[in-house]
Specification:
alpha+beta; 4-stranded antiparallel sheet; 6 helices; 29% helix; globular
Length: 224
């Protein structure tokens, strides 16, 4: 089980195919499974691997709170297609809680120094756990941005949309979808922090490019 070598183009292609019909490595919410695979990548997937790149950009927004995501982080070879063996060279995670030895020596009689060391490590472990940040409420939104006609420069339209930068907003993958009479709409994904970015704000900012944009609709909205 695995993705092959995630530091190679072949392994990234396996990851991209695996994520074609999935939002996360396991289940329906980000978890330690996503953290394990994300940490194994040496760089973002290329643009043509858009499923993997969409997942990578989404998980990148969780880097500050990745330690608090649910689940137990398992070896990389425990994730991925069943018929692919993992061969990624794994690096040691400096923040891994496993680095903290809660039990110390197995000897029945421990010295006072060993007991003190164990108590200090337990205290450090508890302090570390208590400082983990709370999860931030986020949503994944798929937007339909419609042009005025078939002569609208869709590349320029998308470039204008992506110039919208806000705290709590992360743009993802996009594509052009035919709507008839030679007209195509821009369908673009974004992830927002609910407390910072609203759909009404996005609509106001996007439709402000009035020479290019006729309207904006929400095609899909999912809480993360």
């Amino acid at each position: 089980m695995g993705f092959g070598d995630l530091k190679s183009p072949t392994g990234l292609k396996v990851l991209n195919d695996f994520l074609a019909d999935k939002s996360y490595i396991e289940g329906y919410v980000p978890s330690q499974a996503d953290v394990a695979v994300f940490d194994a990548l040496s760089s973002p997937p290329s643009a043509e691997l858009f499923h993997a790149l969409r997942w990578y950009n989404h998980m990148k927004s969780y880097q500050k709170e990745k330690a608090s995501l649910p689940g137990v982080k398992k070896p990389l070879g425990k994730y991925g297609p069943a018929d692919v063996a993992d061969s990624t060279a794994e690096s040691k995670d400096e923040d891994d809680d496993d680095d903290i030895d809660l039990f110390g020596s197995d000897d029945e009689e421990e010295s006072a120094a060993a007991k003190k060391l164990k108590e200090e490590r337990v205290a450090q472990y508890e302090a570390k756990k208590s400082k983990k940040p709370a999860l931030i409420a986020k949503s994944s939104i798929l937007l339909d941005v419609k042009p005025w006609d078939d002569e609208t420069d869709m590349a320029k339209l998308e470039a204008c949309v992506r110039t919208i930068q806000m705290d709590g907003l992360l743009w993802g993958s996009s594509k052009l979808v035919p709507v008839g009479y030679g007209i195509k709409k821009l369908q673009i994904q974004c992830v927002v922090e609910d407390d910072k970015v609203g759909v009404d704000q996005l609509e106001e900012l996007i439709t402000a490019f009035e020479d290019l944009v006729q309207s904006m609709d929400v095609a899909a909205f999912n809480k993360i």
